[in-house]
Target: adenylate kinase
Amino acid sequence: MARIVRVARSSSLFGFGNRFYSTSAEASHASSPSPFLHGGGARRDVAKDRNVQWVFLGCPGVGKGTYASRLSTLLGVPHIATGDLVREELASSGPLSQKLSEIVNQGKLVSDEIIVDLLSKRLEAGEAKGESGFILDGFPRTMRQAEILGDVTDIDLVVNLKLPEEVLVDKCLGRRTCSQCGKGFNIAHINLKGENGKPGISMDPLLPPPHCMSKLITRADDTEEVVKARLRIYNETSQPLEEYYRSKGKLMEFDLPGGIPESWPRLLEALRLDDYEEKQSAVA
Ligand SMILES: Nc1ncnc2c1ncn2[C@@H]1O[C@H](COP(=O)(O)OP(=O)(O)O)[C@@H](O)[C@H]1O
Model:
C-alpha cells in the first residue's frame, strides 16, 4: 500500500546520552495548524500532505495499542509503544533487563531517563530507515516526559481513549499474545450494564485463529494485583497529562462505545478519517 502521509518535515527526536535533540522543532511549531475545538475537545482534520505526530493516552487495558496500531497501518506512520520497547529490552537479557523486570513486574514506571533513552534509540533507528511521523502509545506518561517531548517536537494531536474503570481490569486480565506471530487477542467477555444515566458497554472477545491458540502467552504484569497498581499509578501520575494537553487545545477525548466493530468506525469519524479508509480500501 502506498504511503499516504508525505514527509513534510523530519519528525525525529535524536537521542544523545540522556538528552533529546531535534533538527526540526522550531520548523514544526511554525508549520502546525492547531486542531480546532469541537464539543470541548480537539478534533482533527488530517491533512493528507503532512506528517502525523500523535500521542495516545489512556489507562492500561483501554486499547491504546489496538487503535494506535490500526491507525499506524492506515496512515503509514510507525506505531511506537514504549511498553513494547521495555519488553524488548527485558527479553534481550541486556544489562538493564534485571532492573527493568523488577520495576515492570510491580506495575511501577520505569525512570524517565531510561524510557527517554529507549525511545530516542527507537526513533533514531526509524530515522535511519526513512521513517517519518509517529503514533506514540504509552509515552508520555509523566509530566517530565511530556515536557521533554514538547521541548523537541510538536505534537499535533493527543487522543485520550476512555472506558469505564470497571472493565479495565477484566480487559487486562483477558489479554493474550501469540508468541509466534506477535498478534494481540483478548479472551474477556465484557458486559457492563448501564446505570445512573451512563450507557452500558459490551465487548465480544477477540479470539485468536486456531493456529495461534496453543501459542498464547500472558504478560507477566497482567495479574490482578499488578494491573490494579498500574491503574492507581496511571491515575496519580499520568492523568495530569490530560489537563496539560487539554489546556494546549490538543486533547481529543474518545469514549469507546464498545469493542472494535463499534469503536473503530467511530474513532475514524472523530478523526475525520472515515472517508479516507474507504478510499484506501478502494485503491488497495
Ligand atoms: N512512558 C513510560 N514511562 C515509564 N514507564 C513506562 C513507560 N511506558 C512503558 N513503561 C513501563 O512498561 C510497562 C508496560 O507498559 P505498557 O505496555 O504501555 O502497559 P499498559 O498496559 O500499562 O499501558 C509499564 O507498566 C511501565 O513499567
